[in-house]
Amino acid sequence: MFNLLRLPYSYNVLEPYIDARTIEIHHGKHHKLYVDNLNAALEKYPALQSLSVLELVRSLDKIPEEIRTVVRNNAGGDACHTWFFTGIGPNEGGNPRGALAAAIDATFGGHEQFRQRFAQAVLDVFDSGWVWLSRDGAGNLLIETTPGNDNPWMFGRRAILAFDVWEHAYYLKHQNRRSDAVEAWWRVVDWDRAEERFQTGG
Predict the structure, then answer these.
(1) CA neighbor of 28 nearest in space, from 92, 88, 91, 85
(2) 105-120 CB burial, b ≥16 within 10 A, e <16
(3) Within 13 A of 44's CA, how many CA atoms are on the CB side?
(4) Residue 29: how many CA atoms within 13 Å on its side-chain side?
(5) Cα separation values, 62 from 28, 37, 58, 67, 157, Å
(6) Which of 120, 188, 200, 122 is nearest to 160 (CA)?
(7) Is CATH 3.55.40.20 what the domain over 98-200 is classified as, yes or no?
(8) Which CATH architecture has domain 20-86?
(9) How many CB atoms neighbour CB 124 within 10 A?
(10) Where are the domains of the chain?
């Protein structure tokens, strides 16, 4: 049985950057539905229930074909949203620190250049999906986009930052102004958590 992430903060503490109603719907409705759907899909597969969500999305080729798409969408949704919600927090924002900051500077030419490229990747997503700062098997940083609830773990990479480009993540406050949503998200990014993910592999 998979359980919905218990948020480490209350719905309203990310205001004015992310409003309480958006967090409530995003977490309590959308994220919860992914968890509920995943539990229903695995009800007849007790061996799969013992795996973590990341283990599921890393080994989709071993999932029975009749439930593979459901598991891909819903285990992916749980993993992506857990990474998103635990990668932000109150009294955060600012700039990256430590080894991650140095890697961002080396890879993208500085924090501002990184932010610009990341924001452009968000704007370039045609429909729903995610934008990630991730790390490949050689340790290199990359900005990548994935459709639906696909994610870096499916392709052998590690996730550091996750931005949700599904409209339910920002539309109540920002409507179609994705650039405003990204700018608000930067104000709540937990760079200490990002540094931890960078150091441990995500």
Answers:
(1) 85
(2) eebbeeeeebbeebbe
(3) 5
(4) 8
(5) 30, 19, 9, 11, 18
(6) 200
(7) yes
(8) Orthogonal Bundle (1.10)
(9) 11
(10) 20-86, 98-200
CA angle 133, 167, 6 (to 5 degrees): 70
- Identify any residues that bridge with 142 across adjacent strands, giving them in sequence order: 134
128, burial (CB in 10 Å: exposed 0-12, middle 13-18, buried 19+):
middle
Cβ-based neighbour number of residue 49 at 10 Å: 14
What is the spatial distance between Cα 103 and Cα 140, in angstroms, rounded to a whole number? 8
Beta partners for 143?
Answer: 133
pLDDT band, residue 202 (cuts 50/70/90): low
Instruction: Give me the residue label for tokens 């967090």.
Output: 23
Which is nearest to 23 in space by CA: 172, 131, 133? 172
Alpha helices (runs of H) in 2-110, residue ranges in sequence order: 20-25, 32-41, 46-49, 53-58, 65-86, 98-108
Predicted confidence (pLDDT) per residue in 2-55, tens digit:
999 999 999 999 999 999 999 999 999 999 999 999 999 999 999 999 999 999
Task: Give residue-wise pLDDT tens across range 49-88.
Answer: 999 999 999 999 999 999 999 999 999 999 999 999 999 9
